[in-house]
Write a structure and sequence with these properties.
Length: 531
Amino acid sequence: MITITGKSVFGGVSIGRLSFYKRKQRVIKRTHVDAVEAECTRFQEAKTTAAGQLKELYEKALADVGEANAMIFEIHQMMLEDLDYIESVENIIRTQEVNAEFAVAATADNFAQMFTAMDDAYMQGRAADVKDVSERVLNILCGVDEGIKQTEEPSIIAADDLAPSETVQLDKSKVLGFATMYGSANSHTAILARTMNIPAIIGLGEELSDKLDGQMAVIDGFTGSLYIDPDEETLALMQEKRREDLEQRALLEQLKGKENVTKSGQKINIYANIGNISDVGAVLKNDAGGIGLFRSEFLYLENNTFPDEEQQFAVYRQAAENMAGRKVIIRTLDIGADKQADYFGLDKEENPALGYRAIRICLTRTNIFKTQLRALYRAAVFGNISIMFPMIISMKEIEKIKEIIAEVQGELKAEGIPFREDVELGVMIETPASVMISRELAREVDFFSVGTNDLTQYTLAIDRQNSKLDAFYDPHHPAILAMIKMAAENAHAEGKWIGICGELGADLELTEEFLKMGLDELSVSPAMVLP
Ligand code: PEP
Ligand code: MG
């Protein structure tokens, strides 16, 4: 038995033979042509055929994995119509008097390199797309039909990496899992795997060689392990793990697509919390109605320096687009206390949880705040984004936030940059002060989201990081429940909605209590949405 470990992008266990994905061989040669206009026509015709194929792929993906994920094929169609791309191909044909195949391959390389060199993670990701779409045109020009030769027997698809178009073309009923040598957890392919509910492991490295083609294997998507030629004990263990997982999933699956309404007819939105764009797949997989808390500070924590406006814009936009119209509540930077990034140069503090953190940093280092707000207002054009502010304790803070928003909007307007003006604004209710002034706060914002993790820490005066205090930490403390109730009454008195995004929101022992309080939303980790 060989065990290889990679990065799991979707849980679950699959057992079957490894089937290596083989791409058709094709050699692009540079040949001289005299009839350059006829060559340009050949390119135009191949482009039209490719657009037709992409349209079909879009329809297939729409049916299989939904609009948000099918969008990639619309982007490919747009890339084919990009004037710079077309001009580059035709220029190469005309000026170098060469065949269309050579011109397309050269253009694909140039564009991919250009995207890769960009500073922006989103644009870098487009390099794979321009290559993918050019491969399609090249296959048509060379008369090679694309497609994957899948075995009749369902199998685990192994590959160096898979392009989104390759993934979506697979006959899903014959795919038990994905195992790839490379790939990123943020790639469209990883998102597709999650959305297709297929166990998948990426980054297995070169140990996953095509010499293993046809061997029996097990993917343990919970641990990121791939077992090849498993021994009897491992096989039995994995079969049992698979059985339990399927049983659990089948029960919960029955809830998908159903309205979030109680037996007595009370409606409550069930949203999900995320820390990273790669979590959106799990949100969709679990059919959350929206994202109730996007902890944007993780974007800062994963970076060695301040993420710039473009980088942030790309991430927020992607979240909004992938959620395709469902609400995406993005919380502004909540750095400080337990979440530290060296490049912020924050001082060591006696009481970091009571210190210089979250909105306090944003309101004093306004450049950081303005960059994030610009990215958020720009991204809001692409979906249903709301903005939420952490650690609020006073009306003065709201006033200041609104002043800064007005400044940001004024600047974007003056620069002619598109943005959405009427973005819903909310505050986190996570300090006792915010509970006590919740009636006034409710007049100034559109919604509340209760951060019970911090609300408990500040109300009970118990450091949430100190495990020695676990015995004293009582999240069901009547004081906490009374505070949530008070905030809910005040929100509703001003006609505003209120949810919970702290861990307590997923506490099934309290669900009934929260419904009685009339909470409008619970935002929980993706895996808790269905439970
Ligand atoms: C909270 O405090 O409950 C909350 C949701 O925010 P965080 O856990 O990120 O502080
Ligand atoms: Mg908090």
